[in-house]
Structures are given as C-alpha cells and as structure tokens.
Design goal:
Chain A is of the alpha/beta class. The first copy, chain A, is 31% helix and 18% strand. Chain A has a single domain, classed as Peroxisomal Thiolase, Chain A, domain 1, CATH 3.40.47. Chains A and B meet through strand 3, helix 3 and strand 8 of A and strand 3, helix 3 and strand 8 of B.
C-alpha cells in the first residue's frame, strides 16, 4: 500500500542551543516563522486550520501544567484548535504522524506541527532526568538515560566485538556533520581520541558518547497532497509511518542488542510506505548515545544485526557513504530538545529530499528519507516517519 | 456536512474516587476492561490497532515524564502504537477527537481511547493547582482554578442578576444526578442551603460550588462506521467535533460573561455535525465550578446569554427538564480526574443514547448528545464532541 495523501510544504527550525534569552512561546514562534518562510509560493499564517504541538514536559520542565494550547496565542493564531502530543523522546515524530492523520481524515486541509522544548531553564536536579524514575518500586531507581542505554552497549560489545572506537566513530561522524549544520548546538569537529578521553558517564559510555541538553524548536506545514501545488512545485509527501511500544522495564526486555519497538515500528513504516531499507537515501535516527545509533541502523535494516559498529567505523554512514545517517549532526551534535527533535529531524529530511542541505547534501537515488526516534522508560516506544518526493 | 465515519462500539469507566489502592496502570486497565465488556457482540483486546491516552500530568502529577506509552504493556497490548494527548482539562475530549481522526484517516480501523488521571497521590501543594502558575511574570501569580473562574461569577451576577442560589442550584442538581450514578465520586444529595453554608473558597464560589480532586479512568472503543455492525447492533456515531483556543491570560479576555473558546468550538462542532443546540437530547458539560456550567449552557446555545442561572434554578437542565445537563453528576459530583473526565462524559453520552442510563435516563427525541470541556490557563481551550445514533 502506498499512502502519500499528505504533503509537507514547509519546514524550519531555530538555531538549537542554550536559549536562556527566549521563552518557550518565543521559540515556538521562531520555528513557525521559519516554516512559513520556507514555503515556495508563500504562505499566510491564517491558512493554518489546526496545530499539534510536541512538548515532552509542558513548560519549565513540567512545573507548568500545559504547553500546547498556549502556542496559538503566541504565534498570532489564537482560536485555532491546538493539541499537545507527548510520547517521550518521539514526541515530535508522533505529533507529525498525528498531524498527518488529521489531514488524511478530511477534517483539516492545512495543519501545523510544532515541536518545542525548554531543557535548560531548570537545573538537572529539577529536570527530566532526575524525575524520569518510574512507578515500579524497585526496578527503576537511579534510571537516568545513560543507565538505560549502557547495558545495550556492554552486551553489543560482548556479542559482536563492538569496540569503544566504533562507538566513538558515531560521535565523530555526527559532530563532523553538525559542524556543517548552521542550526546545530555544537558545530565543531571532534576526534576518536576526544571521545575516548572524555569523562566516563556510565561505562562504557563517556561524555562525548552522550547527547547534550539543548533548547530548541522546529515546525512543519502539512497539507492535503492534492492541494500541495498551491504552495510549492517541489512537494515532499508523507509516504508512511510506524509506531510501536514495548514493555517499559529493562528486566522485561527480550534482547539487549536491539530495540524491539524500533524493529516493529520499522516493519509497519516500510509496509505502509511500500519501501525497503535499500530504498532509503538518508536517515535521521535517534542517537541519544552512540550505541543507540548503532542499534538503530541495525534495527532499521540498514546493516545486519551486529554490524552497526563496524559499518560506522568504516564510514558506511557518512555523508558520502552507502547510507548517510544523521546528516544534521544528530542528537549528539545538533542537540536533543525532546519535543523539537523529531520535527527537526523531519526538517533535515525535507531539506535533503529537496536538495537544499548545502554542505551536507547527500546523493538522491530513490527520493526517500527516513526519520526515527526511540524513547520512554527502557526504550518503550519507537516512532518512524518516511518522506518521499515520489508522486502519490 | 454530516460526518459520521467513526462509530463508538464500547465505553466504560471505573468507579471514581480516592483510589490510593490502585496504580495509574491498574486504573487504565480497569477502564479498558469495562469498555471491552460493554461491546455487544464481544471484543478481543488484540483487535485494538492503536491507542490514545489522555493524561494531563503524566503520572504522579508530572513527577514522571511519561504516562502514555507505558499503558499498552499494562493492559496486555505491548507493541501497539500509543500516543499521549494532553490538552489541559479537555485532554480526554481531545484524545477522543484525535482517535476519531486516526480512524477516519484510514490508517487504523479499531482505536482505543483511554483517559486516566491520578489526582490524589500527591498533596495539593505538590500537585497541579499549586504549579499551574504560568510563564507571565506578573499576571499569573496565585492563579489557582477558583481564582480563574470567580471573576466570571462576579461579573455574571453584576450584569444579569445571577444569584448565589442560582449557582447553588447547579450543584444541587448535579449531586442529585450523581446520587444516581454508581461511578460517581460523591453519591449523596445536597441542598441549596448546604452550598450556601459551605466555606468560601474564592468569593462568590464556596466549597460546594467547586468540583473535588478525584482519581479515575475511562475508555472508549472507536471503529470505522462501516464495520461497526461486527461489534454491535446499536452503534453510536461520532457526528462531529470542534476545538478552539483563546488567549490564555485573564487580562486578554474580551468578555467575563462567556468563554470565547467554547463559543467558537460550538460553532465548529455544530457545523461539522450539521445539528443545532435544539437537536441535542442531553449534554455533559464542564462544571468545574457552578458558574462554569452556567456559562457553558449559554455559550453552547442551550439558553440565551444571561439566562443560565435562571434556567438552572427553574429546573430546565434537570433529568426531566428541557435540556438535561450533566446527568452523570458532572465534575461537581462524579469528579474531575482530568485526563479521564472527557472520556467519562462521552461514556455517559453513549449510555444515554443507547438507553442504558438507568435512573438517569433522559428522553431521547433527536438521538444526539453533546460532550464539552473547557480548560487551560484562563479557559484557553475548549473541546466539544457530538455523538449520534442517526445512521451515517
């Protein structure tokens, strides 16, 4: 089944970083303005019929109860329907999927999807990582994000001979790409030695194996595919998407060398888009840690299980490699403002498919790009969207 | 335009109250089981293709980052897509709308919408009301919910001669209805004198003018209208819905005797369902405070602006009145577990339209029921769903 009923006619983001000088609402407005400006034939903000806002913690790290329905007023569109979508780290990816379904349902013709997250206004102790501990009385104490992913690295190294240098090569590649992305939080190249020498966070993950805490916002404009030509001569279509959940606790996992939610979501997304991994020109995947990208490219079918570390070290995932991964710099270099992350990844895919990625542009062979996030307690949810330039 | 592409084939809830003995996940599982049991021709849980979970604060009042994607594992459905919808007090209503759009989009044939909220596990000081203060540095200090709604009561009394007795009559009616609802938090009748004699919270609102803090969960099962007959001979259809936002701060309001978001959402919902207020047999509306129900019935077009107080005192909104309102007991008696509230209201509408409301059953003349929530900082968002037994 090929779907392609929804087109992306605009996308944009604000420069990611430590944005103490911008409010949550200002960040959202900046991303919206960038998306509006990106529409080839022009776009009137009043054309937006409904909005979906991805924010993981509301505002001020969840100290405030709401973070979605205040956005329309802030961007000059008070009155329009606005819904907050939260799905842990894939919040932005899932808001995009829900926005696409809203268009496909026939209820709305033009929908705005905004992702926005304030990560730095509260200290780490008041913020998400200190609070991510879940309801289980025993199994979740001390479960910060590095603690959730490090066991996968240990096991991957044990089963497949993956080395710390292979992990580091992911960070080196993504910082190389980030240095070519004007929107990235970090824009300087690093070396394998830098990664190995950085402080240990949770063995075997060191500081440069981890993504930073970043503020940011991104936005996309979705319309019915059959009216896309009003907005652009170069539409990008939503080819398909897939979402899957998994049991949330680590002791419930069936494997520590792969993420079941990603594997299941990938099956669904490829089936809906009627493509295979070989049809994908480039992908933005969830590299919250270096090991995560290695798991991702295996679980998404770009390399065989166990070969992700070698493929990364060998440059298969570089800008000029067989399957370029995280051309934007990824979470590791561009940053990970949770609600914004997926929407920003989709913006990178949109730029790549339109040939607008500048120094980061990949070779387009099939006209398909994939975007992926995994998250939640113990990688309990994965969301994938596939974009295409191929006509419906 | 008549819509009617989605049918509700199951709905149910757990008894609302102070549920210290149930976890968040247990509450969700209880509501899911109730919805499954309600399907006339039987329902296999494995038929659920995707879920939408309404929770306003995640779990533990937002102390935990996630509250949606852990639900599938808890109800035996790990693997299915699951998205958390948050839209302040209308979170449950909006999850229902999003679930309906997911079915209408053609992506999913069978969708579960669950609303669940833990309101009592944290003290009020740690909970929502103490944290609802928003980003504006001046205008939002001390803005608890009663403070946000009391000025509307004061102004309504000034402009239209509404009295405290009229406000109290809303609470008396809803507690009367709640005494006939086995799922209500409070199941005892009260008098106007009880309301007037209860302690002042924020003048002119007294304790019994305010809804309680309640734990609860509710669930509905949505399917494509053209396959509804597999599940039931008595389907209820989604006739339409409407959502509207408003500027969030009180000083930005254009009126203090009506809620603009509700008026705009009502226009949209009536237009989509192709009905007028006179076509509605009964309605569940947002009575977080007595004044709110008076504003609602005016803004929804059931009575003229300014006449809501008199209509309430005169019994027009009672079970046997012209337009029965909050037959379930409403937020005032049934309770207001935020994410669950809208889904529970829709369950009451579903029971009423199927003639299954027992002692609370209203006379069915047109086969339409309306459900409404308003919320967010300064009533910044309103969501309305209209259900019908009329064939598509």
């Amino acid at each position: 089944m090929s779907w392609n009923r929804v087109a992306v006619v605009g996308a944009g983001l604000i420069k990611f970083g430590e944005l103490f000088d911008q409010s949550y609402e200002q960040m959202a407005a900046g991303a919206f303005a960038a998306a509006v400006d990106s529409v080839d034939h022009g776009f009137e903000p009043s054309q937006v019929e409904a909005a979906f806002v991805a924010t993981q913690r509301g505002t001020l790290w969840g100290q405030e109860g709401i973070g979605g329905n205040t956005v329309p007023s802030a961007i000059g569109l008070a009155g329009i329907p606005c819904t907050r979508i939260e799905n842990a780290c894939p919040s932005g990816s899932d808001a995009f999927r829900v926005g696409a379904m809203a268009v496909a349902s026939g209820v709305h013709d033009v929908v705005l999807v905004i992702g926005v997250e304030k990560m730095r206004d509260k200290s780490a102790e008041e913020g998400l990582l200190a609070r991510a501990a879940a309801g289980h009385p025993i199994f979740t104490r001390g479960e910060t994000a590095p603690v959730l992913f490090a066991p996968f690295a240990t096991r991957h190294m044990h089963e497949f001979g993956t080395t710390r240098e292979m992990l580091a090569s992911v960070a080196v590649k993504n910082h190389y790409n980030g240095a070519r992305d004007p929107y990235a939080h970090f824009q300087s190249e690093i070396t394998v030695e830098d990664v190995l020498a950085s402080p240990s966070v949770c063995s075997p993950l060191h500081l440069l194996d981890c993504c930073p805490q970043t503020d940011g916002a991104a936005a996309t404009l979705l319309v019915r595919a059959d009216i896309a030509e009003r907005f652009t001569d170069h539409p990008v279509y939503v080819a398909g998407f897939g979402v899957a959940t998994d049991h949330p606790y680590l002791h419930e996992k069936s494997s520590f060398v792969g993420l079941k939610a990603t594997q299941l979501a990938a099956e669904r997304a490829y089936a809906m888009a009627d493509v295979s991994p070989a049809d994908i020109d480039c992908a933005e995947v969830h590299d919250c840690f270096t090991i995560t990208e290695i798991l991702d490219i295996e679980d998404l079918g770009f390399v065989d299980k166990g070969k992700g570390g070698v493929a990364s070290l060998d440059g298969e995932t570089s800008l000029t490699g067989r399957i370029p991964i995280n051309t934007s710099g990824g979470l590791l270099a561009k940053g990970h403002p949770i609600g914004a992350t997926g929407v920003a990844q989709l913006t990178e895919c949109w730029w790549q498919l339109r040939g607008e990625a500048g120094d980061r542009q990949v070779e387009l062979r099939h006209g398909n790009a994939l975007q992926h996030n995994v998250g939640g307690r113990g990688s309990g949810v994965s969301v994938i969207n596939i974009l295409t330039t191929n006509q419906p």
